[in-house]
Structure formats: C-alpha cells, structure tokens
Amino acid sequence: MQNFMGKGADWGRQGDPGKPLEKVPPCEREAHEPSLATADCLVRLAEHRDAEAWSCLLHRHGPEIQRACRRILGDEGLAEDACQETLLQIRDRADRFVAPLSDREPAARAWIMRIACHIALQMLRKRKADLKRDLAMGQGPVEESPAPADLGVQTAERLEALRRELAALPE
Residue 31 pLDDT > 60, yes or no? Predict the structure, then answer.
C-alpha cells in the first residue's frame, strides 16, 4: 500500500485542529468496512481529527483518488500531487460534508471524488495556461505537444533559465 502523505510525513498530534494527524498504523479495509462507513469517517474527522477515521479514508479511497487523478492528468507525478492535495482538502474540509438521510455512503464517496476531479482539472487547466503563456512569451510554436512526463523536465529548464536571468540583473 502506498503512503499517500509522503515518506516520513509528520502528521502532528491527534485532535489539534491546527496540525495534521498523527501517523497511525495501517488499517485493513475489511476490518473497517462494517464498523466505520465513509460518511462516519468524515464526521469523525471533522469533529476531532480522528486518526482511525483518517487511516480508514486513506486506505479505502486513496487508491481510487490516485487512479482518477492519473486518468485526468495523464501524468503519474502530477497525479500524486493532485492526490495529496485532495487528501489535504478532505482533511481540512470534512466539516463541509453534509450527509443525506439516505444513501450516505454513495454521497460521501461522490463528495470525495468530486474534490479529487476538481483538483485534477484545476491542475490540468494550469498546465494548459502555462503552456499558452510560454508560447505567448516568444518561445515559439511547439512542433509537437510535449508528453506529460516531459513537462517536469521543461519546468526545470524554465526555472533554471529564470534563475540565470535573475542572476544577470543589475542590483
């Protein structure tokens, strides 16, 4: 199972609303499904940043969030960033989830996936706007649209060129 919050992430103390959650041992999906529904996890997360609820959400929905982000973005690295941002949004905005009286579980899943898709689409729009801006700034037309994996290399090259230009400016 992937660690969706990054290796060695320090998640802070449980219950402190200003800090992320504590690291918790991984839960098994089967162990939590009957006792802890997704809607209940969101409620517990909103009320007191329950570490067990957080762990259950990570294991139940983390892989699905990552798959959706990867399909939208077409790039594994960007999908991981979108997945982490989605999880942070879920953690910080769990109190905004309003469970309907019926069909609570599908509503909770839809709420989570709507956040994931929204974030991935925002990242896709930003990438498109960045490419348009680069073209408008005189980098010339692109013969072939870059593959998603090449975008990280291009970004690093642009950053290095920007650093060189900034270093060359007079004080």
Answer: no
